[in-house]
Design brief:
Blueprint (H helix, E strand, L loop, with lengths): L8 H33 L3 H6 L2 E6 L4 E5 L4 E5 L3 E3 L5 E4 L1 H6 L5 E3 L12 H15 L8 E6 L9 H13 L4 E7 L4 H6 L7 E7 L1
Parallel strand pairs: 1-7, 7-8
Antiparallel strand pairs: 1-2, 2-3, 4-5, 4-6, 8-9
């Protein structure tokens, strides 16, 4: 007796229903293996997917703070106005206009030989400007601080450490003190620093 090779309708129907699911899991498995491979070579890739990058450029006359991913930028005079109890009542150009008796106007980046003259005031100033472009973040940002003035002999180790500590104190996960030309958006997004055109001092917690 010759047996028929035709499959029953019920089996054909079941296979048609299962085939898309099987194909999906095969494709998903391949993508997962590829992703795990990327994770093994780039241990910080997951964090960087959600991490913001803050770029801080300053001189004694101007401070510019940018959240690279959100394209938010604030630029102003790097001054704060303190009242009698040392609380900040205004900052930037508004602080200059609001200056009155009993209030102290402070520019923490004014010094003939160093990039910081008052650490606590510098931290408070940078914190205010960073919060202006990044009010909240579940993942601590990477912060790059870039003094734009060239100081004789370059930055000292004390200044580099002070700038790095300043960024850590206001919530940075990674800090970069960059001395060189202004960085491009691509370089900032990828945290790439052109070694031929400057020097970077990195610190990660």
């Amino acid at each position: 007796m010759r047996k028929s090779l035709a499959r029953s309708p019920s089996k054909l129907s079941l296979q048609k229903r299962l085939f898309p699911s099987v194909l999906y899991f095969i494709c998903f498995g391949n993508k997962l293996n590829s992703y795990i491979g990327d994770m093994s070579t780039q241990p910080f890739s997951i964090t960087r997917r959600f991490q913001k990058t803050i770029y801080i450029q300053f001189t004694p006359e101007r401070i510019t703070v940018t959240c690279v991913e959100d394209q938010r930028t604030v630029e102003d005079v790097p001054v704060i106005l303190l009242n009698e109890t040392k609380h900040i009542v205004a900052f930037g150009a508004q602080a200059r206009h609001a200056h009155s008796n009993g209030h102290l106007l402070v520019n923490p980046f004014t010094h003939p030989r160093m990039c910081i003259s008052d650490f606590d005031a510098a931290e408070a100033t940078v914190r205010i400007f960073v919060r202006s472009v990044l009010p909240r973040s579940l993942v601590k940002p990477a912060m790059i601080v870039h003094p734009l003035l060239s100081y004789e002999g370059g930055l000292t180790q004390i200044e580099i450490r002070a700038l790095s500590d300043l960024l850590l104190n206001i919530g940075a996960k990674q800090t970069y003190v960059w001395v060189g030309r202004p960085l491009t958006e691509t370089e900032l997004r990828q945290l790439q620093f052109p070694s031929q055109e400057g020097t970077v001092y990195e610190r990660v917690i």
